[in-house]
UniProtKB/TrEMBL annotation:
In the C-terminal section; belongs to the IspF family. It comes from Sulfitobacter undariae. GO terms for molecular function: 2-C-methyl-D-erythritol 2,4-cyclodiphosphate synthase activity; 2-C-methyl-D-erythritol 4-phosphate cytidylyltransferase activity; metal ion binding. Residues 221-376 are annotated as: 2-C-methyl-D-erythritol 2,4-cyclodiphosphate synthase. Residues 220-373 form the 2-C-methyl-D-erythritol 2,4-cyclodiphosphate synthase domain. Its cofactor is a divalent metal cation. It holds the Pfam family YgbB. The record marks 15, 22, 253, 352 as: Transition state stabilizer. The keyword Transmembrane helix does not apply. It catalyses: 2-C-methyl-D-erythritol 4-phosphate + CTP + H(+) = 4-CDP-2-C-methyl-D-erythritol + diphosphate; 4-CDP-2-C-methyl-D-erythritol 2-phosphate = 2-C-methyl-D-erythritol 2,4-cyclic diphosphate + CMP. Its EC number is 2.7.7.60, 4.6.1.12. This is Bifunctional enzyme IspD/IspF. One of its GO terms (biological process) is isopentenyl diphosphate biosynthetic process, methylerythritol 4-phosphate pathway.
Length: 376
C-alpha cells in the first residue's frame, strides 16, 4: 500500500496571533511547519508528501520542492485547501491528511492510522474525552453534557485516496475536518489511538506547550561504523548483500560482507549497544559462514524495539576492485529490504584510495557507514 501525506498549512492562524501565521513561527530551532513535515519525512512508510500553502506564502515553496515535496496553493477554508492538495497529490493508494499546526505528531500515531487503513475506508486518531463537559456562556455554567462516547479529533486523518477525493467533490458546506466529509459520503472511519502530545497549536499558549513536548520526546541519534576485510582465495565477494563475481574472495568468520558489517555497527553505535562482536561473537561456531543479513536485521529490529525509526543509512565502500558502481542500486535495494525502510533513504557509494595504503594495493576492502535513528 503506497501511502502519501498531505499537510495543510494555508490557514492564517488568527487565534494564535504573532507576526506571521502560526505554522511559520519557531519552536526551538525549527518552524512549526518544519516539525510537522519532518514527522512524515522520517516515517519509513510514507512515500510522498504534498503541502498546501497560502497564496501569500508561496515564496516558501522552493525550499520544500527542492526536498522532493509537492507544493500547492490553498483555499479560503480548510476543506478547500485539502481539495487543492488532493488534486495535486502524487500517485498513492491512501492519503494521510495532517494539520501543519500539529508539530508533535509521532510515528506511533501515524502507524495506527496506516494499520487501520488495511481494513477500513478511513481512520483517524481520537482521544476519549476524560474531563466533565459543561455548556455555558462567557462566565456561567448553564448545563452539563454527558461525555460518554465523545472523542477529541486529531490528525493525521487517513483515507483511501479515490474515496476521499470523491467525498470532497460531493460535500456541500464547510466541514470541521475530513472525517466529517468522509462520513457524509457514507464512508466508515475507524478511531485509532490519539496521543495527548499530538496537540494543535491554536492559541498563543500552545507554542510553549508544543516546545516542551518536542524537547521531551525527540531523540535523534547518529552512529558510525568502520570495518575491513582482507582478500583471500575465492571467486566472488559479498558486498551489501549482493554477490559480485571477482578473482578473489574476502576472508572472514561469516560471509565477510564488509558493507553489511559496517552498517550493522553504525546502528549498534547509534543505540550505544556495543558492536557486531558483542552480539555475534566470532568465537561462537554458529556464526561460521553466516549470512551477514542476519546481523543487520538484528540491529534494525533492536532499534525498532527501542522505539527508534531508522531514517537513513549511508555507506561508503573503499576499494580499487571490484567496481561497485554497476551494483550500487542492487545493494541499495537489498539493504532497504533488510532494514525495512524506503530505498530513497539508503545510500551506497564507493571510492578508491588513489592506490594508496592497503586498499590501494588491493589487499582488502574497507567500509565506513553512518546510520540515523529518530525517536519522537
Ligand atoms: N484555509 C485554510 C484554513 C486552515 N488550513 C490549515 O488547517 C489546519 C488546521 O486549521 P486551524 O488550526 O483552524 O488553522 P487556522 O485556520 O490557520 O487558524 P485560525 O482559525 O486560528 O485562523 C492548519 O494547519 C491550517 O494551516 C488550511 O490549510 N487552509
Ligand atoms: C482537523 C482538526 O485538527 C481536528 O481536530 C480541526 O478540526 C481543525 O481545526 P479547527 O480549530 O477546528 O479549525
Amino acid at each position: 500500500m503506497r501511502v502519501c501525506a498531505l499537510i495543510v498549512a494555508a490557514g492564517r492562524g488568527t487565534r494564535a496571533g504573532g507576526l506571521r501565521p502560526k505554522q511559520w513561527q519557531f519552536l526551538g530551532e525549527m518552524r512549526v511547519i518544519d516539525h510537522s513535515v519532518a514527522g512524515f519525512e522520517r516515517h519509513p512508510k510514507i512515500s510522498d508528501i504534498a503541502i498546501v500553502l497560502h497564496a501569500g506564502d508561496m515564496a516558501e515553496a522552493a525550499a520544500f520542492e527542492a526536498r522532493g515535496i509537492t507544493v500547492v496553493r490553498g483555499g479560503a477554508e480548510r476543506s478547500a485547501s485539502v481539495q487543492a492538495g488532493l488534486a495535486a497529490l502524487p500517485d498513492c493508494d491512501v492519503v494521510l491528511i495532517h494539520d501543519a499546526a500539529r508539530p508533535c505528531v509521532n510515528a506511533t500515531v501515524i502507524d495506527g492510522v496506516i494499520e487501520a487503513l488495511h481494513s477500513h475506508e478511513g481512520a483517524a486518531p481520537g482521544l476519549a474525552v476524560t474531563d466533565a463537559l459543561w455548556t455555558g456562556n462567557t462566565d456561567t455554567v448553564t448545563g452539563t453534557q454527558d461525555r460518554a462516547g465523545l472523542f477529541a479529533a486529531q490528525t493525521p486523518q487517513g483515507f483511501h485516496r479515490a474515496a476521499i477525493i470523491a467525498a470532497h467533490v460531493q460535500y456541500n458546506g464547510i466541514a470541521a475536518d475530513d472525517v466529517a466529509v468522509a462520513r457524509a459520503a457514507g464512508m466508515t472511519v475507524a478511531i485509532t489511538a490519539g496521543d495527548a502530545d499530538n496537540i494543535k497549536i491554536t492559541t498563543p499558549q500552545d507554542f510553549a506547550r508544543a516546545a516542551r513536548i518536542l524537547e521531551k520526546t525527540m531523540d535523534i541519534r547518529t552512529g558510525n561504523g568502520f570495518d575491513v576485510h582482507a582478500f583471500g582465495a575465492g571467486d566472488h565477494v559479498m558486498l551489501c548483500g549482493v554477490k559480485i563475481p571477482h578473482d578473489q574472495g574476502l576472508v572472514g568468520h561469516s560471509d565477510a560482507d564488509v558493507g553489511l558489517h559496517t552498517l550493522t555497527d553504525a546502528i549498534y553505535g547509534a543505540l550505544a549497544a556495543g558492536d557486531i562482536g558483542t552480539h555475534f561473537p566470532p568465537s561462537d561456531p554458529q556464526w561460521k559462514g553466516a549470512q551477514s543479513h542476519i546481523f543487520l536485521r538484528h540491529a534494525a529490529e533492536m532499534a525498532r524495539a527501542q522505539g527508534f525509526t531508522l531514517t537513513h543509512v549511508d555507506c561508503t565502500l573503499i576499494c580499487e576492485h571490484p567496481k561497485v558502481g554497476p551494483h550500487a542500486q542492487a545493494m541499495r535495494d537489498a539493504v532497504a529490504e533488510m532494514i525495512g525502510i524506503e530505498v530513497g533513504r539508503v545510500s551506497v557509494k564507493a571510492t578508491t584510495s588513489e592506490r594508496l595504503g592497503f586498499t590501494g594495493r588491493g589487499e582488502g576492502i574497507a567500509c565506513m557507514a553512518t546510520a540515523t535513528l529518530v525517536k519522537s
